[in-house]
Amino acid sequence: MFQKYSLLTFRPHLWQTSSEVVREQPIYSTRAHVFQIDPNTKKNWVPTSKHAVTVSYFYDSTRNVYRIISLDGSKAIINSTITPNMTFTKTSQKFGQWADSRANTVYGLGFSSEHHLSKFAEKFQEFKEAARLAKEKSQEKMELTSTPSQESAGEIQSPLTPESINGTDDERTTPEVTQNSEPRAEPTQNALPFAHSSAISKHWEAELATLKGNNAKLTAALLESTANVKQWKQQLAAYQEEAERLHKRVTELECVSSQANAVHTHKTELNQTIQELEATLKKKEEEIEKLREEIDNAKEIQAQRDSLTQKLQEVEVRNKDLEGQLSDLEQRLEKSQSEQEAFRNNLKTLLEILDGKIFELTELRDNLAKLIECS
């Protein structure tokens, strides 16, 4: 006799709770991949769920607060109370994030489509505004009654069930929940550093090119100014020698010449010449001072260029690191695809063997039937 085999359908174990009354009710639900910022680096995203899970907005009518809650099995991976100072930011077409100062972390959600992300962001803004209004009303009530708030004693967590969070019958009232498995929307942590680093690199390269051009011009002007300074110093030395010679000549003329009027006139002319030379000398000294200031500015610009060059090198090192990470991810993806292909080939082989066994059993049955008829 042949035994009949039937497929067994296994249902996951449902997490039952006590008979406590749940004062929070989901008002909007969707599915997304959940991430948290790495607490050590504060830069990289760490996935907190292996697959897309249900993320729900909850409203606590008792305390008049809105919360975002998500469970992965029996583990709460998101429990964030919406406050008026929170901001939900779209970092890509399918990824958004917000910071929770109470939880001291940043949450990230990867959606299957841009529509789901936009809908979640709209609800976030709506409930954020509602939280702001509720806070203002609460403050007005406190001012009128002058009684301390009972809610400041600390937030009491409501008993939650996986059925109310990750979805059972309640999901029929939230059309945004996707029951089938969705393609995982990876965060932009890998893509954004490349785009951001590339933009920074281009910006610093443009700044560096401008500084190089300015530095070349200043260097040329500095060399020209240095040559002019040397020439002016030589002229100044010649003027000083000429002034000394003229002073000596005046002294000699005063001692030797008997013509006081002629000597006085000549002395006046010499004094005027000396004054002109002193005015010229003062002007040259002012020009030398300006050139010194330009030299100091050129040195400061050179220091800025060295700093920008160092930053550019750091950005290049970061880009190389990110390229290495991308290459590692591509290798993992190729390995995963090859393993899936091998698995499909094994399934095909097993299917062929199963078909052969079924054919043999069919022939055996026909033969046995013939033997029974003949007997």
TrEMBL record:
Report which superkingdom the organism of origin falls in: Eukaryota
InterPro entries from the xrefs? Homer, Homer_EVH1, PH-like_dom_sf, WH1/EVH1_dom
Q: Which UniProt keywords apply?
A: Acetylation, Cell projection, Coiled coil, Cytoplasm, Phosphoprotein, Synapse
User: Where are the annotated coiled coils located?
Assistant: 222-346
Give every WH1 domain span: 19-131
Question: Bias category Polar residues: which stretches?
Answer: 158-167, 175-191
Principal location class: other
GO CC, alphabetical = apical part of cell; axon; costamere; cytoplasm; dendrite; dendritic spine; glutamatergic synapse; plasma membrane
Q: Name one GO biological process term.
A: regulation of calcium ion import
**Pfam families from the UniProt entry:** WH1
Cite the GO molecular-function annotations of the record.
G protein-coupled glutamate receptor binding; transmembrane transporter binding
Compartments where found:
Cell projection, Dendritic spine; Cytoplasm; Postsynaptic density
**Region: Disordered, residue numbers:** 135-191
Q: Give the record's family classification.
A: Belongs to the Homer family.
Quote the PANTHER family the UniProt record gives.
HOMER
- What's the protein here called? Homer protein homolog 1
* Organism of this sequence: Anolis carolinensis
State which gene encodes it: HOMER1
